[in-house]
């Protein structure tokens, strides 16, 4: 009997120990490997992907994307819409403080917007000046806790663009972030962490802001409660992937974001774990519809029939994601299997269409580069598949800068390309649809497509938006102005002591909510 109770006591002790490991623990340092240094600490002004990742821990926007890609509260705890969708009133989160201890008011929100708006290098201004349909006419401060945005016309993308983590359109900083002469000094934000130090080329160190008051809504993506557990987050600059993997194996690094799928087994063998999520970076084959050969939609459909999307997705992502020809990602709330409808892989059908179109073996060039393995590998696979269907497909391997210049100028027949994450499908369609005479980089120059895109953003009614997106995809399957391949999965390598961390569709690490085990 004593032995039985002794065994029970031991089991209870072990269970309590496991539960303690699973429970959030405050304190310690979480170290994250970054492939390159950040560009600046001025959010949205001088930025890149790494800069955005770091600054999201320091600066908050009024709203943020949830994990299901809807928009939720962040610095604003709520908002109301009036005037037929033209006026948005945001209520600032109760108890919100800047890192210097000063309370946040609507005046600082407006000041931050006005400063960004007046900065010529802020590349997101065209998203709000009416160039793309959405126009902010005024930002007002009816009372200290309310900031009001007035739009020229209703637009379903307003909240999505306000939540855009590349723009920090409503990212709020204290005017004390500037030097007396108006030059930039340091970010004094409202986030759960504040900047402690930045040693260029080495590391960015953040420390927990003890007076942070989180929302009551559970954290999800960049919305809801941002509850910080670690005392310090260290973003370590580790340009070499092999060095970063070795640092993860030895415990010098706790998180290695954006791991190549081919490295998963090696990381696991070295004691790490791998967390994945459906991503939003879209790998595609660009099609120049103004090209003399490719201007015939029958030839474009033949190319679509010649490409086995499933095989390419399987090969490139090691089975972590499935093919998707649509600008509506699987992680989108709008997605259903209807967005997978596309000219089926059928080389015989491709050959019949080529014959019908009078294709005489003219060479079709696929531009690619070796800077991004995915783009190059996709081009090689597509070349082989087109050749098997009787198309004289040829690779043109360029340096990335030249290929990008060609994309901007529309100087290509086919290009292996990829679009970075857009968290709303209309945003992705928005960079595809337009008049080539005005912007040669536009992929899809079609009045019907432009009309459907406009319909997709003129209302916030989800059913109406989804209907417009469905019609857009059906039209794309008919005209083939671009060939979507797959969405790159979010793959992060996690060290054994990092707990409570998980990736999400935006593929941006968030270290609030995570903690370091002893």
Number of strands: 18
Q: Enumerate the strands of the largest sheet in spatial order, edge to edge or round the barrel.
A: 11-16-12-15-13-14
Q: Which structural class is indicated by helix and strand composition? A: alpha+beta
The separation of the N and C termini measures: 35 Å
| Low-confidence segments | 1-5, 10-19
% residues in beta strands: 15-25%
What portion of residues is helical? 25-40%
What can you tell me about this protein's structure?
With 518 residues, this protein is α+β, with helices and mostly antiparallel strands. It is built from 14 helices and 18 strands. It has a 6-stranded mixed beta sheet with strand order 11-16-12-15-13-14, with helices on both faces. Strands 1-10-9-8 form a 4-stranded mixed beta sheet, with no helix packed on it. Strands 4-5-7-6 form a 4-stranded antiparallel beta sheet, with helices on one face. Strand 4 and strand 5 form a beta hairpin. The chain is globular, with a radius of gyration of 25 Å.
Fold topology:
Layout: H1 2-22, E1 29-34, H2 49-55, E2 63-65, E3 71-73, E4 76-82, E5 87-92, H3 106-117, E6 136-143, E7 146-151, H4 158-162, E8 193-199, E9 203-208, E10 232-237, H5 241-250, E11 255-256, H6 264-269, E12 273-287, H7 297-306, H8 309-317, H9 347-357, E13 364-369, H10 373-388, E14 393-398, H11 400-409, E15 414-419, H12 425-430, H13 447-457, H14 462-479, E16 482-494, E17 498-499, E18 515-516
Parallel strand pairs: 1-10, 13-14, 13-15
Antiparallel strand pairs: 2-3, 4-5, 5-7, 6-7, 8-9, 9-10, 11-16, 12-15, 12-16, 17-18
């Amino acid at each position: 009997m004593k032995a039985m109770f002794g065994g029970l006591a031991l089991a209870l002790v072990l269970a309590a120990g496991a539960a303690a490991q699973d429970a959030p623990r405050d304190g310690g340092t979480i170290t994250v490997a970054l492939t390159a240094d950040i560009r600046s600490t001025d959010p949205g002004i001088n930025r890149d992907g790494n800069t955005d990742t770091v600054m999201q821990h320091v600066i908050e926007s009024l709203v943020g994307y949830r994990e299901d890609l809807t928009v939720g509260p962040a610095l604003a705890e709520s908002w109301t819409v009036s005037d037929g969708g033209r006026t948005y009133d945001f209520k600032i989160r109760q108890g919100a403080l800047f890192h210097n201890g000063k309370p946040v008011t609507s005046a600082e929100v407006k000041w931050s917007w006005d400063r960004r708006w007046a900065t010529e290098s802020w590349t997101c201004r065209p998203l709000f000046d009416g160039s793309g349909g959405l126009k902010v006419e005024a930002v007002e401060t009816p009372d200290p806790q309310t900031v009001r945005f007035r739009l020229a016309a209703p637009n379903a993308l307003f909240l999505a663009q306000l939540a855009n983590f590349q723009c920090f359109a409503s990212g709020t900083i204290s005017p004390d972030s500037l030097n007396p002469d108006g030059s930039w000094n340091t970010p004094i934000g409202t986030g759960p962490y504040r900047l402690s130090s930045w040693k260029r080329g080495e590391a960015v160190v953040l420390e927990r802001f003890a007076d942070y008051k989180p929302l009551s809504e559970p954290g999800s993506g960049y919305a809801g409660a941002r509850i910080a557990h670690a005392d310090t987050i260290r973003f370590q600059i580790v340009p070499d992937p092999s060095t970063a993997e070795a640092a993860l194996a030895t415990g010098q690094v706790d998180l290695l974001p954006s791991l190549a799928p081919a490295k998963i087994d090696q990381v696991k063998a070295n004691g790490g774990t791998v967390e994945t999520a459906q991503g939003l970076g879209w790998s595609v084959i660009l099609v120049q519809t103004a090209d003399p050969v490719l201007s015939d939609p029958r030839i474009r459909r033949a190319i679509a029939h010649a490409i086995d999307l499933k095989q390419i997705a399987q090969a490139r992502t090691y089975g972590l994601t499935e093919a998707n020809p649509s600008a509506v990602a699987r992680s989108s709330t709008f997605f259903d299997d209807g967005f997978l409808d596309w000219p089926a892989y059928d080389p015989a059908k491709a050959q019949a269409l080529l014959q019908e179109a009078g294709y005489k073996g003219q060479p079709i060039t696929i531009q690619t580069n070796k800077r991004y393995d995915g783009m190059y590998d996709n081009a090689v696979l597509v070349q082989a598949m087109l050749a098997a269907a009787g198309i004289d497909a040829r690779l043109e391997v360029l340096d990335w800068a030249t290929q990008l210049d060609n994309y901007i100028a529309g100087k290509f027949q086919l290009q292996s390309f990829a679009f970075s994450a857009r968290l709303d499908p209309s945003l992705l369609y928005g960079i595809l649809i337009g008049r080539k005479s005005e912007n040669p980089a536009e992929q899809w120059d079609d009045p019907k497509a432009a009309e459907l895109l406009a319909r997709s953003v003129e209302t916030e009614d989800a059913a109406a938006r989804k209907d417009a997106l469905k019609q857009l995809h059906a039209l794309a399957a008919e005209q083939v102005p671009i060939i979507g391949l797959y969405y790159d999965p979010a793959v992060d390598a996690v060290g054994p002591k990092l707990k409570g961390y998980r990736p999400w569709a935006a593929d941006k690490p968030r270290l609030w909510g995570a903690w370091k085990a002893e």
